[in-house]
């Protein structure tokens, strides 16, 4: 089931080095690129149907089209390498195993959108990865693929790596821009959208690492070649991360559209230890959970996920076996989102902490049915009332656990009530 | 005038000014969109989420009104059930970690949380888990005391210090529900406008060490006035009260919105200058060192005046126009030399390009408009052979040191009409207590030629005469401030169509009226 | 997140060493505004000292030409900045979803039982400090432990024991 488009060089020893990467086709497309008109590059990417691989799935070519023309201001490209959504670990492979694919993608994108300055925003936790990425960039500068004349063409591209420092919210594109500007990573209200007023108030395109890294293949082989993978509306391949209770967790490149359970079975070796499946988180921890029954009919693409009232997200699939205590899992999730709330909007800032404490109260055996109801109600009260979707990233999955596994919450509450009754 | 546009709020058509955000646009026609973080002087931040409104047709269904420009034909939902629910929910979130210590909170009575709880929440607390705890009673410097637990992290204070004073002493530290406002250690609030953060704070998180615990705000009488701290003449509200068995005193000055003068703010010096209205006041009438009835002293003064072969009348540049007119009439009547010499009121370099003027006189423009000579030369020449100086509250100690005053006065007899008791009034042959600007109504012109009228705020148990009354007693043909105002209307063309009460709250800008039409 | 507002003062003035000074000057040219240097400068400080003191924050603010409150905000917002000295070896254990599902708690429990070390604390000899952190992006090889910035994947108590033994 696996294909090797993005991951073609991942298993090649030393492919992170320019010399080896070039032997395997890195930077081979630049002459062709510069012979094209930027508008044609955008058109080709639009045709390919490439969708933003950070989680939102917005068509990349369309996004580039939002840039206003001739503003007299520089256009910035920000590469989102903050992948912080729990269960997401795909971009890391690109940074470490084939960074030159990313750099080539940056050159392609820069040329298409008329940008000369790129900032790669990499999460602070990627301590070793940032060094490897920087080493690749240094090599690219030395070889003339970056700098004033990219590969001898009259086009400048400068790339700067900007390290985050432990803030999930900086994966939100405007928080990311704030962070590059030296501020706290607090998302901006939109409008204005970054394409119009982004980094340093200039037109800015923000794309995920994987989206950018997909460009060399599309330019080399054309949109149609890319479209031979995946589905009509979700073309191409994706670096899926499979984690949790499976025999063979890991990163796998797969075309979009494959049946979820089949992938789990054939690619990831099925549920570990011969246990039964309790649920699947399909696209990172913020996506609503699927029950085994629901999982049967899901395929790995944006449309099927939406039909099942969940999301493709980042493609980070987490498998839950029958032993998982859902209430504890929910506590773990809320902990995360509460910890990562930027503290800006009232409902998220105050509400997530409240939800966390209520869940703890239930776990401590001190909860009541009305606490369970309150927890469920707070999901509605917080969601979509805030500048960004961080709060929704918490409330959407928590709501799904409450709705699909409510009996587990009630068990904590009634266990306590019956023990109280016994004591009397 | 800005263009008008029509939009719909709850289905009803309203006409509003274009170019404003929804909060401001509809508030001008009396519709309140609740908001906490938004402040017109600081721009929209959008963090509190209290101003979320619905939009029917087109655009996102839910938008923060502070960030949304009012547009023609917009259909705004404000009292729809789902919007009321959001307002309630946001208030619930604001309050779950709030200490609700209103009984000991200075903000009680003028607190947005209280107002909005009554307006939009009114439910019992559902908070059954431990609250977030933070620090209290933090001394932020500059007279600002902070309570992190009361704070709703709206960031108004932070934005004020970054955008307006550009001193940036405050930041919002941490994230999530441990976010809190703080100073960087060792870099306290240190600017001349810092106390505005107390007004800006919509809740009781920022309190003034000067006002804390002094008075419940609902006891305060609020009277619009004009600050006399410098020539800028910021519009203010005087908050005063007479406690049982006590005298009427002022508890605080607060800036009063005036886009023509000071916007929403005022400086700390001006704000704290209320103290001078309460303290150090001259309340006696004295012959030499001895307290006498006012009439006795007036009689003495009039005898002195009759005997004097050369009299100099000195006015303070702080007096109201009415008072200046009265004193001018007095001087003319007496054939005395009139001077407004007050160089000492000007502290060169003290001012800035915002709300603080070098000139600490409230009405120097008044002297100019009335043609009162203020030069040092003519004042000192007149003083050289003067037998009597009648001083209407001009603080000579600002212009001369001790020996300078001694040689200036020589053996000139002095009548000191003064608001404050100091060494000079102590040495005067006649001392007459007069009311200060919080105790009379009057008109002043600021350094930018904006004329403002202020009303009487405080009524002392022992009411003192104002300068107009004293001048009349000493022989001015103008019997009171009313007559003086009529005289003033003749001098300043722009005033001819205004009675004092009709002068707009934001004042009259004499630069763009027929005020050039001055006949002094 | 716990409160990070309490900064520690060393009582000594801070400045970049020669190497960081040069790196600061090199990096500042990469950005159109000096304020963009806030995060990089905090990183340089942490590289140099292992943690970030009150004096260092003031130094960065003054060096960049911005308000200390802004640098203070960033230093407390971003949780990877250490605002107090860490142990000689700083151990981060991922506590989020996939690592939690695959047994990170056993490693935490081991440190508590064997070293008396709990999250947010240091061992008495100052050799180890422990922090439970949010997702480290190694979910496919969970549980993951990061020691002094190096990742150790597919951990269990046995592997962790032998890892500890290599740390001098």
Automatic annotation (TrEMBL), chain A:
Keyword terms: 4Fe-4S, Flavoprotein, FMN, Iron, Iron-sulfur, Metal-binding, NAD, Quinone, Translocase
Domain of life: Bacteria
Keyword Metal-binding appears in the UniProt entry: yes
Top EC class of this enzyme: translocase
The protein's role, per its UniProt record: NDH-1 shuttles electrons from NADH, via FMN and iron-sulfur (Fe-S) centers, to quinones in the respiratory chain.
Originating species: Desulforhopalus singaporensis
Biological process, per Gene Ontology: cellular respiration
Ranges for domain NADH-ubiquinone oxidoreductase 51kDa subunit iron-sulphur binding: 327-372
Cofactor(s) of this protein: FMN; [4Fe-4S] cluster
Catalytic reactions of this protein: a quinone + NADH + 5 H(+)(in) = a quinol + NAD(+) + 4 H(+)(out)
Family: Belongs to the complex I 51 kDa subunit family.
A Pfam family per the record: Complex1_51K
Name of the protein in question: NADH-quinone oxidoreductase subunit F
GO molecular function annotations of the record: 4 iron, 4 sulfur cluster binding; FMN binding; metal ion binding; NAD binding; NADH dehydrogenase (ubiquinone) activity; NADH dehydrogenase activity; quinone binding
EC number: 7.1.1.-
Automatic annotation (TrEMBL), chain B:
2Fe-2S ferredoxin-type domain residues: 3-82
Ranges annotated as spanning the membrane: none
Broad class of the protein's primary localization: membrane
Database matches in SMART domains: NADH-G_4Fe-4S_3
Start and end residues of each 4Fe-4S His(Cys)3-ligated-type domain: 82-121
Alphabetical UniProt keywords: 2Fe-2S, 4Fe-4S, Iron, Iron-sulfur, Membrane, Metal-binding, NAD, Translocase
GO cellular component: membrane
GO molecular function: 2 iron, 2 sulfur cluster binding; 4 iron, 4 sulfur cluster binding; metal ion binding; NADH dehydrogenase (ubiquinone) activity; oxidoreductase activity
PANTHER family: NADH-UBIQUINONE OXIDOREDUCTASE 75 KDA SUBUNIT, MITOCHONDRIAL, RESPIRATORY NITRATE REDUCTASE
Name of the protein this chain belongs to: NADH dehydrogenase subunit G
Organism annotation: Desulforhopalus singaporensis
Automatic annotation (TrEMBL), chain C:
Binding site residues for [2Fe-2S] cluster: 94, 99, 135, 139
SUPFAM superfamilies given in the database record: Thioredoxin-like (SSF52833)
InterPro entries, alphabetized: NuoE-like, NuoE_dom, NuoE_N, Thioredoxin-like_sf
Needed cofactors: [2Fe-2S] cluster
GO MF assignments: 2 iron, 2 sulfur cluster binding; metal ion binding; NADH dehydrogenase activity
The entry's keywords: 2Fe-2S, Iron, Iron-sulfur, Metal-binding
Cofactor descriptive note: Binds 1 [2Fe-2S] cluster.
Assigned protein family: Belongs to the complex I 24 kDa subunit family.
This protein's name: NADH dehydrogenase subunit E
Species, as recorded: Desulforhopalus singaporensis
Lineage start: Bacteria, Pseudomonadati, Thermodesulfobacteriota, Desulfobulbia, Desulfobulbales
């Amino acid at each position: 089931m696996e294909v090797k488009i993005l991951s073609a060089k991942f298993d090649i020893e030393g492919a992170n080095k320019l010399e080896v990467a070039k032997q395997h086709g890195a930077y081979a497309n630049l002459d062709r690129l510069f012979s094209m008109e930027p508008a044609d590059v955008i058109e080709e990417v639009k045709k390919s149907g490439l969708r933003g691989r950070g989680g939102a799935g917005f068509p990349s070519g369309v996004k580039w089209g939002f840039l206003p023309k001739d503003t007299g201001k520089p256009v910035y490209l920000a590469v989102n390498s903050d992948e912080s959504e729990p269960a997401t670990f795909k971009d890391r492979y690109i940074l470490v195993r084939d960074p030159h694919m990313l750099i080539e993608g940056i050159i392609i994108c820069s040329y298409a959108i008329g940008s000369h300055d790129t900032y790669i925003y990499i999460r602070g936790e990627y301590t070793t990865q940032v060094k490897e990425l920087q080493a690749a960039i240094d090599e690219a500068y030395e070889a003339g693929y970056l700098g004033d004349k990219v590969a001898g063409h009259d086009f400048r591209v400068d790339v700067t790596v900007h390290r985050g420092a432990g803030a999930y919210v900086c994966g939100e594109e405007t928080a990311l821009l704030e962070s590059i500007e030296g501020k706290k990573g607090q998302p901006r209200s939109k409008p204005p959208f970054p394409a119009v007023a982004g980094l340093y108030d200039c037109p800015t395109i923000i794309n995920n690492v994987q989206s950018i890294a997909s460009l060399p293949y599309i330019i080399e082989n054309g949109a149609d070649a890319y479209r031979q993978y995946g589905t009509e509306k979700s073309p191409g391949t994706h670096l899926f991360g499979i984690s949790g209770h499976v025999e063979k967790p890991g990163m796998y490149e797969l075309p979009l559209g494959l049946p979820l359970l089949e992938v789990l079975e054939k690619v990831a070796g099925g549920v570990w230890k011969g246990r039964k499946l309790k649920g699947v988180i399909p696209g990172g921890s913020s996506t609503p959970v699927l029950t085994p029954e629901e999982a049967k009919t899901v395929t790995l693409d944006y449309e099927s996920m939406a039909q099942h009232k969940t999301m493709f997200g980042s493609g980070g699939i987490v498998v839950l076996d029958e032993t998982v205590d859902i209430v504890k899992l929910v506590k773990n999730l809320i902990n995360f989102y509460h910890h990562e709330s930027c503290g800006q909007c009232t409902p998220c800032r105050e509400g997530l902490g409240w939800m966390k404490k209520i869940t703890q109260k239930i776990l401590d055996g001190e909860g009541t049915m009305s606490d369970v109801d309150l927890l469920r109600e707070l999901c509605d009260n917080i969601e979509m009332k805030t500048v960004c979707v961080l709060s929704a990233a918490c409330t959407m999955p928590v709501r799904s656990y409450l709705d699909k596994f409510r009996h587990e919450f009630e068990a904590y509450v009634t266990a306590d009530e019956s023990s109280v009754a016994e004591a009397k | 005038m800005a263009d008008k546009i029509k939009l719909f709020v709850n289905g009803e058509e309203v006409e509003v000014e274009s170019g404003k955000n929804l909060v401001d646009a509809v508030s001008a026609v009396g519709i309140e969109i609740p908001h906490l973080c938004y402040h017109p002087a600081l721009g929209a931040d959008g963090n509190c989420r209290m101003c979320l409104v619905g939009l029917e047709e087109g655009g996102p269904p839910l938008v923060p009104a502070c960030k949304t420009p009012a547009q023609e034909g917009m259909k705004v939902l404000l009292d729809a059930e789902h919007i009321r629910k959001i307002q309630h929910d946001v208030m619930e979130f604001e309050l779950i970690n709030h200490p609700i210590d209103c009984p000991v909170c200075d903000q009680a009575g003028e607190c947005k949380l209280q107002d909005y709880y009554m307006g939009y929440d009114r439910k019992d607390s559902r908070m059954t888990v431990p609250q977030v705890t933070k620090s209290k009673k933090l001394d932020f410097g500059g007279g600002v005391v902070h309570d992190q637990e009361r704070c709703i992290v709206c960031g108004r204070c932070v934005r004020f210090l970054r955008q307006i004073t550009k001193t940036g002493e405050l930041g919002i530290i941490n994230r999530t529900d441990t976010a809190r406002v703080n100073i960087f250690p060792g870099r306290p609030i240190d600017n001349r406008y810092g106390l505005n953060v107390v007004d800006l704070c919509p809740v009781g998180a920022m309190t003034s060490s000067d006002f804390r615990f002094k008075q419940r705000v609902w006891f305060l009488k609020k009277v619009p006035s004009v600050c006399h701290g410098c020539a800028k003449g910021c519009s203010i509200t005087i908050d005063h009260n007479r406690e049982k068995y006590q005298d009427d005193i002022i508890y605080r000055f607060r800036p009063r919105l005036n886009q023509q003068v000071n916007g929403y703010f005022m400086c700390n010096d001006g704000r704290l200058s209320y103290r001078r209205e309460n303290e150090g006041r001259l309340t006696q009438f004295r012959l030499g060192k001895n307290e006498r009835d006012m009439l006795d002293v007036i009689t003495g003064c009039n005898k002195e005046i009759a005997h004097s072969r050369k009299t100099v009348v000195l006015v303070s540049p702080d007096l109201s126009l009415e008072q200046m007119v009265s004193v001018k009439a007095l001087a003319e009547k007496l054939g005395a030399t009139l001077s407004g010499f007050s160089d000492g009121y000007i502290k060169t370099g003290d001012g800035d390009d915002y709300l603080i003027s070098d000139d600490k006189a409230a009405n120097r423009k008044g002297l100019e408009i009335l043609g009162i000579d203020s030069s040092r030369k003519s004042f000192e020449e007149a003083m050289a052979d003067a037998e009597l100086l009648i001083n209407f509250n001009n603080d000579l100690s600002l212009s001369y040191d001790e020996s300078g005053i001694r040689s200036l006065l020589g053996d000139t007899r002095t009548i000191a009409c003064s608001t404050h008791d100091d060494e000079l009034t102590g040495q005067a042959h006649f001392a007459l207590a007069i009311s200060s600007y919080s105790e009379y109504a009057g008109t002043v012109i600021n350094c930018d030629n904006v004329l403002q009228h202020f009303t009487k705020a405080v009524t002392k148990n022992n009411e003192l005469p104002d300068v107009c009354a004293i001048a009349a007693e000493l022989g001015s043909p103008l019997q009171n401030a009313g007559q003086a105002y009529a005289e003033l209307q003749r001098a300043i063309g722009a005033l001819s169509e205004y009675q004092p009460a009709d002068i707009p709250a934001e004042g009259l800008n004499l630069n763009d009226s027929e005020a050039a039409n001055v006949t002094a | 997140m716990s409160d990070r507002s309490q900064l520690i003062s060393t009582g000594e003035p801070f400045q970049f060493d020669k190497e960081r000074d040069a790196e600061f000057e090199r990096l500042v040219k990469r950005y159109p505004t000096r304020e963009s240097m806030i995060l990089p400068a905090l990183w340089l400080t942490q590289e140099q000292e292992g943690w970030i003191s009150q004096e260092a924050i003031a130094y960065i603010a003054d060096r960049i030409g911005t308000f200390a409150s802004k640098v203070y905000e960033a230093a407390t917002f971003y949780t990877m900045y250490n605002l107090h000295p860490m142990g000689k070896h700083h151990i981060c254990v991922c506590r989020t979803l996939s690592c939690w599902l695959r047994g990170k708690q056993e490693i935490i429990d081991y440190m508590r039982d064997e070293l008396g070390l709990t999250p947010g604390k240091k061992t008495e000899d100052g050799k180890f400090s422990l922090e439970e952190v949010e997702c480290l992006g190694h979910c496919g090889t969970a549980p993951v432990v990061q020691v002094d910035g190096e990742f150790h994947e597919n951990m269990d108590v046995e592997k962790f024991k032998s890892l500890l033994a290599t740390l001098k």
